[in-house]
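A reminder before we start the practical. When you read a complex entry, don't treat the lines as separate problems. The point of joint prediction is that each chain is placed relative to the others, so the output describes one connected object in space. Small molecules and nucleic acid strands, if listed, are placed in the same frame. In the example below there are three entries. Take a minute to note the order of the lines before looking further.
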Amino acid sequence: MTTLNNINAAQLEEQLELWEKEEVSTFLSKQPEREEEFFTLGGFPVKRSYTALDTKDIPLEDIGLPGQYPFTRGPYPTMYRSRYWTMRQIAGFGTGEDTNKRFKYLISQGQTGLSTDFDMPTLMGYDSDNEMSDGEVGREGVAVDTLADMEALFDGIDLEKISVSMTINPTAWILLAMYVALAKRKGYDLNKLSGTIQADILKEYMAQKEYIYPIAPSVRIVRDCITYCADHMKRYNPINISGYHTSEAGSSPLHEIAFTMANAVTYVEEVTKTGMDVDKFAPRLAFFFVCQADFFEEIAKFRAARRVWAKIMKNQFGAKKPESMRLRFHCQTAAASLTKPQYKVNIIRTTVQALAAVLGGAQSLHTNGMDEAFAIPTEEAMKIALRTQQVIADETNVANVIDPMGGSYFLENLTSEYEKKIFEILDEVKQNGGTVKLIEEGWFQKHIADFAYETALRKQSGQKPVIGVNKYVEEDEKVDIETHPYDPTTADRQIARLQNVRATRDNQKLNTLLEQLVEVAKDEAQNIMPITIELVEAGATMGDIVEKLRTLWGTYRENPVF
Amino acid sequence: MPTPSAELFSRLKTGDLRAASRLMSRAESHDPATIATLGEIYKSAGRAHIVGLTGVPGSGKSTLVSRLVSEIRKSGRKVGVIAIDPSSPFSGGSILGDRIRMTNLVLDEGVYIRSMATRGSTGGLAKSALTAVDILDTAGFDVIIIETVGVGQDEVEIARASHTTMVVSAPGLGDDVQAIKAGILEIADIHVVSKCDRPDSNRTITDLKTMLAMGINISIKDQSNKPVWQVPVVGTSSETGEGIDKLITTMDKHREAHLTSELGEERLKRIAEYRTFKTAEDLLRNRFFDSTSERISALVEKISKRELDPFTASDELLGNIAF
Amino acid sequence: MSSPIRVLLAKVGLDGHDRGVKVVARTLRDAGMDVIYTGLHRTPLEVVNAAIQEDVDVLGISLLSGAHMTICPKIMDLLKEKDAEDTIVVVGGVVPDEDVAFLKEIGVKELLLQDTPPAKIVETLTRLVEERGPR
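Here is the predicted structure of the whole assembly.
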């Protein structure tokens, strides 16, 4: 086994001891350190300084080179030297027309990929005129009920030329069906379409809580999206297996990655059960992580995630193609770290987090707006957030060297620590019955709730400093922010189009198709996508489809864990 | 000004659930007028079938209760549920989550759900649970389910307080039937195996039947040694609905068996005895603490230095209380 | 021993963010209160019915979706209609400054929004219940 440094360990140990006894001791007596012990935000202890001793046992092949197994240093050999990460700021509010305008604005400001946020009714499968949608239409995202809304959303945008991400989960397959139907209408080649649906339903039961049906049928739907895209849409990522939400729900960075990997393994298992070869679909599995505030920990975390995934795909699933083993991820800076008081400071937080994401090798990045704690972002907030990425890309030169942190004693040590702990957790999950069973038992949720609680206590005590909230607090701060207003005409406009679609479609045909949907749903071996595409083309609303399947599958009700 | 308890009682008798709700909150009141009213409520109750349902965490108890309630409602009967969860031993507080499993019932006027915590009382029942039962009884509820968590030898009060005790076990929670581990096997009038849609549930049912056959309480006999009730094992699935109506029939049969036998009277007497003991014990404890906590503090230093022993000290303190 | 304060924590509407409400539940439990949680996706009617059956001292509504201007008035109206106006209502989560006055006008006693330290929540609820007095 070749390791990182060819060193004389004994000599170095001696040097270290001497240093502690002399230079360090002398200094400590004059100026003690700020804490007894130092930890990362995730709870990993960190030393005063790291040396070659801390990396001497790391196998060289674990570190490797960019674009080569185990991809610790990056999924591609040239990374940002060929192409910067995609600058993908999320947008979504009002009706399709409203968001379409914001899309076009962002593209004009230099954004290179689109990312769509949907309103709560769309996320949860309710039509805009459903009682549950009251007060929520177009508020936190764009309202989509029918294919007609999708047409308005992407009007004048060439889907073959720009990649589109849709942040949607339990109803992801319906949005995908609409996307495909739209592309067909416009004569696009499905294999040229680049983009993604988030579609990671398992993390919903764990963290974000956007779900409709019980676990088994929901996982089947995800499986269908993956196999459909593998067969029909070569450039499309049918899933973004996410850790972001787990982190935002309160988990530690370690659990963010470990739980994501547990979910990923479950999806791969489900798809391989259909008989599809792992190398056929794995290259298009994508990930989505947060970039939290502990600068070096986040970089180590990303590197460890890549290494872990590569090893899992190779060793557990027997993948042969390198594309199946390389982890690609979208990243978002941490909304949970942003504050309402002294909100402009959020720009600084976001900048540092964005830098860590870049040094960590993200493929795509959304930087949060300074108004995150107030409302959905204004144009101004998004512009500054975008400029943040552009400054990093164009003015700092950090993108010119791949994995510049590679070889750092500290980073390599922390990366390996993370890798080790992630595999330990994955083993524990396996021993205890697997991901789905542990979700049902609330195992993941308990860990998340525990860390969230501890974090709240640490914030309260000041042990975790948050500027503006428990440190450097400004008692009589004058808040002068302009926030994105909610247009009160949104619901009416949206419902008008919805009713128009209902009135002008062939309802008999629709009902026949809905019956067929149930038949397809009952047969687990069938893929639900084709019938769904037919349905949306026939003017089916999201509610039509979701409610019909509810009669078959029922509604999921969680057992909350505190 | 708070509405007088007597007035709430009048309203309660007409089925006023707002009054019921407020009275339940006063179940531990020290106010003599309220206590008197609670006594009246006790006397006006006695119609309802009180069903105790217990099982270890994870046994699917709450989901089962939810199904049971829906099913019982179909016969037009009104159902109350007292859902009891343990309090934190450290803070005395609690998070009560049973009603989440029953959200589909919350808009039905014929269903009433009240959550409570054990708060220091050992035995599994909350102090005010039986008073709450009386209140719902008086308000016209036909079946009142007391749902508790059965986790150990101590948690058997439910059997002493209810007409029919059901113990729920789930398959796959371990090699042994948890009811055995928990020591609550013998208290059941009906054993329920939940999650019967699972393939391993048959084994649990068989295990239970075997255990019962080997054990003492296989059948409850009357004075002439005739078996009045044979403890059955009923399999149910909250997911498919299987076994739920059978469980209700069994439950109703148990009620019948007791209403028409001497055993039923015996049981009522035992329940009355238990309640009285508990109420007296509680009163005693309160009065003791009220009158002695200061005096104990004064003696504590001597006791800790072993100059005085706890036996002598207690005797002294008890001797000085007015009962 | 006096009866503990009973609190119903409610998530109303489609908003699924429960990190905050769960931290609050634990905090209140650790302060000796009895906390009843409604679970996610509840309607105003379901929440009010539960609040009444449980005869809670405090109804805490957690909202991060911006739908408070629709949901809170509905809840306050229902509480009034069902003779439960003596329930102390507080709101947690995300509410823009400009909406606070309206919510207080319709009867919400306090807003305990993001970053409110857990201890402050305990102190506030305890104080509000004391001020209300016995019922």
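Discuss with your neighbour: Chain C touches chain A through 33 residues (CB under 8 Å). What might explain this?
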